Structures are given as C-alpha cells and as structure tokens.
Amino acid sequence: MTIQNLLPANFAYVILTIFYSWVMLSYLGVKVGKARKKYDVKYPTMYSDKDPVFNCIQRAHQNTLEVYPQWLIFQCISGLAYPTVASVLGVIWVTSRFSYAWGYYTGDPAKRMNGAYGYIGYLGVILLSLAAALQLQNML
C-alpha cells in the first residue's frame, strides 16, 4: 500500500503548510535567541525585569507555541477531509503569526493584534475538523 492510497490527493498541500509552520516557528525561535544575546537574558530565565522589548519578543514565540499543538491537530484532521481548504486556512494562520510577532516586536503589545486575522484560519480548521467528525458519523 502506498501513501497515495492512504491520503487524499491534495494532502501534499497540508504537508507543505505544516512545513511552512516549521519555518515560522524556527524564525520566531531564532528571533528569541538573538534577543537573548542583545538584551543579555541568560537561560533559563524566561523574561527580563529590565527589557520589556525582550519580553514582547519572547511572548510572541511563547504564545505561538501555546496554540501550535491544537492548530497542528486540527490542521491534520481538517486536511484529511478538506485538504485544499484546510491548507488555505493553515497558510492564513501561519502568516498571521508572522504579523502577530512583527507587531509584538515593536515593544507595543497592542500591535500584536496585527495578526488577529489568523483567527480565520484557526477557527476555520476547527470547524472543518468538526465537519469531518460529523461526516464520519453520517450526521452531515
């Protein structure tokens, strides 16, 4: 049995979206590492008492990590039933995390809301996952 027999034809888009999310997480992690050096925040200290900009950079990464496992699960579930739509929604969410971080990096936490459009992608894959579950139960 081949992978093509197990997964929907367009599931490659879902895989590529997940790869894009890895690029985003790596980028955010590198930004925190560089900020640790710049603001002299040593491991294992999570936040700085002196530099609120460092805290904003750290929070952008940390908040993304807090929601990432749920997004990843819903991305995969929704992608099994609706791979193309799920991928578009996933790209919206991942791209929004860049906007969220870049707003946060200014040092003004209110600017993190530049990434609020990501809720379209996040809630979208949740709803598609629910639809997939209902389809499996022949409720749709």
From TrEMBL:
Its main location: membrane. It is a multi-pass membrane protein. It holds the Pfam family MAPEG. One of its GO terms (molecular function) is transferase activity. InterPro entries: MAPEG, MAPEG-like_dom_sf, Membr-assoc_MAPEG. Keywords: Membrane, Transferase, Transmembrane, Transmembrane helix. The keyword Transferase applies. The chain crosses the membrane at residues 12-30, 71-96, 116-136. It comes from the Eukaryota. It is found in: Membrane. This is MGST3 transferase.
